[in-house]
Each structure stands twice: as structure tokens, then as C-alpha cells.
Write a structure and sequence with these properties.
With about 500 residues, the protein is α+β, with helices and mostly antiparallel strands. A 6-stranded antiparallel sheet has the order 1-6-2-3-4-5, with helices on both faces. A hairpin with a 2-residue loop joins strand 3 and strand 4. Helix 13 packs parallel to helix 15 and helix 17 crosses helix 23. The chain is globular.
Length: about 500
């Protein structure tokens, strides 16, 4: 029998306490919650290489560890316990060694501690995040199951492992007191998995799960269906689409596992983002925690809200690239944030952050200088907008930023109205964001232009109401909202900007 996770956590804490009494040195708490990820990763690997008995015996050794025997020896540490816990920690908390590592990246976690002679785990061959009832989960597992492939199933808070060996499904739930389930019935597998997750999800009829499949390096990859086609098929069903749109935290799980195709499909089918408060960190801050700049950019492009807690968290975690993205996403810079940035990175580092945030704005908005003479006639709205921009920029001296480009963009809006008689809905956020980012620039130079910015926004809102534009474009919460129509900032443009910033800051 394999001992369950609660016994192992209790024994690990007892071992470190006993070790501290012998050595006189307290050991920092290194085994905590979420050990299930380490246990499943370790079980999958040892089972895959034919050493599942070794996994069971090592866990039983810890579960029956005898403090009296340990005290009777001159040893200051139990090597077998240490080796087991080292392996579990590596797979459960890889970010302690590599801040960008995630639990589900088994290849990365394993590579951090594997010897040259060890067989290595390859990158995930397949990943699918979706909602399932028991029958739906059984159907998907039956379609995906292939001999010896390592299945890692997660609802974001607990992990269960699955293998198909010699026609038998083997299922390992670290919380189970009954060890590994072995069965030939995929329906029994699905019911067992539901039983392992349901208490963590308030017994919802549909569980949100991620299914990731791994194998050893240099093994032939399996044959899997296309997740994009799977999502399209399910979203075409009105009943399924309704469940997807209102599931408690499918979006959070999709963001956690980088399921960008699913997220794009959800938004394309009318999904309205709402924060899920069941986790300590929201999706934006979790990206910051793991220094995942590409994911942060992706989420901001979807219009996820940014607020003061995000920039404070980016400062705490020392992720200046995230600060740049948050500022370029329209986050209002408060004086307290300005002081904190200056204190952490110095005046030169702070100026670089602002400079690169503004440079990114220019790239996103595709700002180009326009000749005002090409505008045959300026209407009242256009005159007011340019007047507000001129008013805001008059007292702001940015030596390396040409704010005339922003005025040029406003002129382009004016020309659009002159030629078409209206502003295209996609351009309205650009006008709003011109004003909002001038507010950021003003704060950087200690100039409070809040009142004038509010007047400018009121003028733009008035025009929006007059033209009866959709609510979808009234108040974008992210600068990247405009990139949906103006062209997204490609990774090839983002990375050099951030890398150049890092190099200058270090210099």
C-alpha cells in the first residue's frame, strides 16, 4: 500500500524537527502544500522506467520512519529520507531553483536535478484544458490513452497521475488511502478522477481540468487529436457554450496552463472576463510571479484589468519588464508607485522604465508624424482633441520622446472624420489612450493634469455617446485593446525592447 499525502507531510515535518534537535540548526520549512505535484511527477517517472516498486518502498520508508532509531545513531541526517524529499521538492517546487519554472513543466523540473545517466523527460506532447462531465472525460481519455504515456491531470490545485500499461489503466491520487487504482474500465477511471477532484470544486457536475501528456526523451510521440478542432466542436454546441461561458474558473485554469487557443475561442464566442477569487493571485499577478512576460502580454491584450496591486507585486518580485508592460497597458502611475520605482531602480533605472514603456506605446499605436496641412478641415471635436493634447504636452519636457507623434495620431483621427464623417469604433480607444498615456507622462515629471485629462475624456465620451458606439469600446482597460485592430505587438518587437531595457539597466 502507498501512504497518502497527509501522512507524508506529517512525517516530513517530524523528520526535520528531529534533525534540528540533533544538529542544533533549524531547517527552513521546505515541505508544504502542493506536494501532490511532486508525488505524481515522481510516480509517473519511476513507473515509466519500470521502478514503481521503488516509489512505493521509498514512501513507505518515510511513512514508517522511526525517530527513536534515528536518535540512537550518531547520524545527523537520514540519507534515504533526504533523497526522497529532495526529489519530491524538485518536482513540487521547481520555482525555488528557477523562478520561471512551473510545476507542470516536468521536463524542466526533472532536468534541474537529473544526473547525466538518468533518462530524461521530454516536453509535453499534448495539452488540453476544458470542462468535463464523467462521460465526457472518459471519452477523451479513451481517445488519448496510449501505452506508457504519462498523463498529468490537474484542476489547478490537485494533481492525479495516469498510465496505460499492458492494457490496464493505473491511476495514482496522492490523497487516496488505497494506493494505485488498476482497472481496464475507462468509465471507472473517470469516476475515480472525479472523486479525487470533486471536493475541491464544490461537487460541480462539470470539472475544469488540464490534461498534459509526457514521455521520456527520444521516445516516439503519440498520436493525438487537434485541441483547436475539439474546442470549435464543443463551442458550436449552444448548451456546452453556455456552460463554458459561466464556469466558475475555466478561464483561470486556461491561463495557468497557457491555453491561448481556448482563451481566444472563449472571447470570440462572447466570453466576458470576471475575476475568480478562489486563488491568492489573479491571472495577471500569477504571470508576474513566474516572470512569464509573454503570458502577461497575452493577457493584457485580452483586456484583463490592471490595478495598483499588479505594479506593487511586480516591484516586490523585481520584474521590471512587467512594470513596463503594465504602464504601457494604461495603468495610472500614482506618486507612491513613482517613488517606489525610483527607490528600487534608481533615477536612471526609473527613467529607462518610463522611456521603454512609452516606446512600446508608440509601437503598439503605430504612431507616425503626419502633416497637418493634409487635413482639409477640422471639426469641433477634432479641434478640441488636439487642443487638449497640446495643453497637456505644453509643460511636459521628455527629451527622448517625440510627443508630436501623438498629436499626429489625433490628426489622423481628424482626417478620418473629415473623409468618412465619423470615427471608426476601433479608433476610439486610441483617442482615449492618447490622453491616458499623456497623464502617465505628466505624472513622471511631477505634473498633475488629472483635471484636464478628465475633461478630455469627457469630451471623447460625449462624442462616443453622440455617435452611439457599442459599449465594447467605451472604456478599454488596456492600451493593448487598440492593438486588436491596429496590429498586435509581435514577440519579435517585444523581446528586443525588453532585452535592451535589461541591458541598459544592468549597465
Amino acid at each position: 500500500m502507498i501512504p497518502d499525502q497527509s501522512i507524508l507531510l506529517e512525517k516530513a515535518a517530524f523528520y526535520f524537527e528531529s534533525k534540528a534537535l540533533k544538529t542544533g540548526v533549524d531547517t527552513p520549512e521546505i515541505i508544504a502544500e502542493d506536494l501532490c505535484s511532486g508525488l505524481v511527477g515522481y510516480w509517473l517517472y519511476l513507473s515509466r522506467i519500470g521502478h514503481q516498486d521503488k516509489f512505493a518502498s521509498r514512501l513507505r520508508y518515510l511513512a514508517t520512519w522511526d525517530n527513536k532509531l534515528f536518535k540512537a545513531t550518531t547520524l545527523k541526517r537520514d540519507e534515504e529520507v533526504e533523497q526522497l524529499l529532495d526529489n519530491l521538492q524538485l518536482l513540487a517546487y521547481p520555482e525555488k531553483l528557477l523562478p520561471t519554472a512551473r510545476q507542470y513543466q516536468l521536463a524542466t523540473s526533472f532536468a534541474l536535478g537529473a544526473d547525466e545517466k538518468d533518462q530524461k523527460i521530454g516536453e509535453a506532447e499534448f495539452s488540453l484544458t476544458f470542462i468535463f462531465d464523467q462521460k465526457g472525460l472518459a471519452d477523451v481519455l479513451e481517445r488519448l490513452a496510449q501505452p506508457n504515456k504519462m498523463f498529468r491531470l490537474s484542476n489547478g490545485f490537485h494533481i492525479i497521475g495516469l498510465l496505460l500499461v499492458d492494457g490496464q489503466y493505473q491511476v495514482y491520487d496522492p490523497n487516496s488511502k488505497n494506493g494505485v487504482l488498476e482497472t481496464s474500465s475507462v468509465l471507472e477511471v473517470a469516476a475515480y478522477i472525479f472523486g479525487g477532484f470533486e471536493d475541491l470544486q464544490d461537487k460541480q457536475p462539470f470539472l475544469a481540468l488540464n490534461i498534459s501528456i509526457y514521455d521520456l526523451q527520444d521516445c516516439s510521440p503519440g498520436t493525438y487529436f487537434d485541441p483547436t478542432e475539439y474546442y470549435s466542436e464543443k463551442l458550436a454546441d449552444p448548451d456546452c457554450r453556455q456552460i463554458i461561458m459561466h464556469h466558475t474558473y475555466l478561464f483561470y485554469l486556461a491561463a495557468k496552463y497557457n491555453e491561448y487557443v481556448l482563451i481566444n475561442s472563449m472571447f470570440a464566442n462572447g466570453y466576458k472576463y470576471r475575476i475568480w477569487r478562489g486563488n491568492k493571485l489573479n491571472e495577471v499577478n500569477e504571470s508576474i510571479k513566474y516572470h512569464d512576460i509573454p503570458k502577461l502580454k497575452f493577457l493584457l491584450e485580452q483586456g484583463l484589468p490592471v490595478n495598483a496591486t499588479s505594479i506593487e507585486y511586480a516591484l516586490e518580485r523585481d520584474v521590471p519588464e512587467a512594470i513596463i508592460l503594465l504602464l504601457s497597458a494604461g495603468l495610472t502611475l500614482q506618486q507612491a508607485h513613482k517613488d517606489a520605482i525610483a527607490n528600487k531602480y534608481g533615477s536612471q533605472g526609473a527613467m529607462l522604465i518610463y522611456e521603454y514603456a512609452l516606446a512600446m506605446l508608440s509601437k503598439v499605436l503605430h504612431l507616425e508624424m503626419l502633416d497637418e496641412n493634409v487635413v482639409a478641415r477640422l471639426g469641433f471635436y477634432e479641434q478640441q482633441l488636439i487642443r487638449y493634447i497640446n495643453d497637456l504636452t505644453h509643460a511636459i519636457q521628455l527629451p527622448k520622446v517625440d510627443w508630436q507623434k501623438l498629436q499626429g495620431d489625433a490628426v489622423e483621427i481628424a482626417r478620418q472624420i473629415d473623409q468618412a464623417g465619423k470615427i471608426e469604433p476601433a479608433t476610439v480607444p486610441t483617442a482615449q489612450l492618447i490622453v491616458e498615456n499623456l497623464r502617465i507622462a505628466a505624472f513622471e515629471h511631477g505634473v498633475d493634469v488629472s483635471d484636464r485629462c478628465e475633461k478630455a475624456m469627457d469630451r471623447i465620451d460625449g462624442y462616443i455617446q453622440k455617435m452611439q458606439f457599442s459599449d465594447h469600446v467605451l472604456h478599454p482597460n488596456s492600451l493593448f485593446f487598440s492593438s486588436l485592430s491596429h496590429g498586435s505587438l509581435a514577440k519579435s518587437e517585444v523581446d528586443p525592447v525588453l532585452e535592451n531595457y535589461r541591458a541598459k539597466l544592468k549597465a
